[in-house]
Inverse folding.
């Protein structure tokens, strides 16, 4: 349940800082925290009801503005233009393939490697949004992406903490991302990063013994 509170602007800071007190008067809770942004209180009541309480300063918080593109879970960069988001996603993916992907495989850091999966999926979904020329989704992702796009992700190799599985998933996602991103570049007036992609492909070939030049660049 989402609840929005509009607090008096002059007493807003005081009211927001006092949230544990007034929340305790509303309902018993087993969890209450402000981990995302200060004006959102995440709550789970003793009855199991989950609440997001939003506190506006003098007026309701406007969520009708287009959401910004957050390109990958590990990136702090946001974009309002999908073409810039696409260009960033491809470059970030190539950086990952040439660097962390290979180094984590070499070190056998399979568990740590798996923590990067949400970031990779964020890069891929950015490409999907560029294909659709769609705004960044909010809560309802399944309404944003097509059945074909969702099926393409479902067809990727499973992710498990082994060398073989992480290589298969990483390169499978990479081929999907790159093969779909490349045809979009001319439409958005972008220049494909051939040299960067070639270096990434060379690294994969030289270190892992896998040829990717037919789709990576």
């Amino acid at each position: 349940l989402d609840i929005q509170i509009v607090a008096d602007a002059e007493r807003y800071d005081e009211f927001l800082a006092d949230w544990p007190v007034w929340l305790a008067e509303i309902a018993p809770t087993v969890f209450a925290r402000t981990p995302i942004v200060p004006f959102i209180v995440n709550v789970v009541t003793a009855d199991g009801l989950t609440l997001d309480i939003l506190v506006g300063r003098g007026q309701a918080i406007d969520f009708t503005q287009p959401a910004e593109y957050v390109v990958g879970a590990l990136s702090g960069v946001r974009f309002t233009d999908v073409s810039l988001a696409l260009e960033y996603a491809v470059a970030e993916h190539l950086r990952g393939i040439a660097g962390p992907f290979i180094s984590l495989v070499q070190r056998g850091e399979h568990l740590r490697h798996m923590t990067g999966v949400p970031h990779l999926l964020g890069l891929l979904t950015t490409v999907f949004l560029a294909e659709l020329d769609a705004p960044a989704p909010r809560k309802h992702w399944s309404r944003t992406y097509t059945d074909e796009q969702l099926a393409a992700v479902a067809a990727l190799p499973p992710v498990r903490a082994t060398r073989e599985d992480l290589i298969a998933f990483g390169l499978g996602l990479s081929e999907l991302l790159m093969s779909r991103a490349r045809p979009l570049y001319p439409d958005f007036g972008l220049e494909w990063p051939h040299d960067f992609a070639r270096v990434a492909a060379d690294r994969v070939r030289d270190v892992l013994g896998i040829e990717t030049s037919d789709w990576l660049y």
Observations:
- The chain has a mean pLDDT of 94.
